[in-house]
Write a structure and sequence with these properties.
The protein is of the alpha/beta class. 30% of the residues lie in helices and 22% in strands. It is built from four helices and six strands; from the N terminus they run E-E-E-H-E-H-E-H-E-H. It has helices at 47-50, 76-89, 102-112, 135-153; strands spanning 10-13, 18-25, 28-33, 54-59, 96-100, 120-124. Strands 1-2-4-3-5-6 form a six-stranded mixed β-sheet. Residues 149-158 have low confidence and may be disordered.
Length: 158
């Protein structure tokens, strides 16, 4: 039986704000952590398939999706604390976990700083090493900065 993606509708009250999450499927636990500026909606095509083999835990990071947005701090320093608290709240031991982008960095911090053990960690394009952003992103940033300088001083720089 294939399930359809549902927006996170369960509430976890963290020390930093409320987090919306959902749990679907059956089998070994698997946690999905999205990147920014997205939400768990990015996993909408993957969750139904994974739920045939796993109990899939997914949530919206603080400040994104269905989770609380009226908060001052949505940094990595907060997100790994929330993920650690969620794992304890869900009473999971050694789950598998997938992190994308900012979610990948959150997973790494949860493993390294919060000492949460995972059976397997899969990171997809994590923003884990400075400088953040792909070479393409940095090229666009540089291009826009150079364009701004060009417009200001009316000289061709690139």
């Amino acid at each position: 039986m294939t399930i359809e993606y549902e927006k996170p509708n369960k509430v976890f009250k963290s020390n930093f704000g409320y987090i919306k999450y959902n749990v679907v499927g059956s089998g070994e636990p698997l946690i999905l952590v999205h990147g920014t500026p997205w939400s768990s909606f990015n996993w909408r095509k993957i969750i139904p398939a994974l739920s045939e083999w796993f109990t899939v835990y997914y949530y919206d990071l603080l400040g994104y999706g269905e989770s609380e947005k009226n908060v001052a701090d949505v940094s990595l320093g907060v997100q790994n604390e929330i993920l650690s608290a969620l794992i304890n709240y869900w009473n999971l031991s050694n789950p598998k976990i997938v992190g994308h982008d900012f979610g990948g960095a959150t997973v790494l911090r949860t493993f390294l700083l919060n000492k949460i053990d995972f059976e397997q960690i899969l990171l997809i394009d994590p923003v884990a090493v400075a400088p953040w952003g792909s070479p393409f992103f940095l090229m666009l940033l540089c291009t826009n900065l150079l364009l701004a300088v060009y417009q200001i001083i009316s000289m061709k720089l690139c």
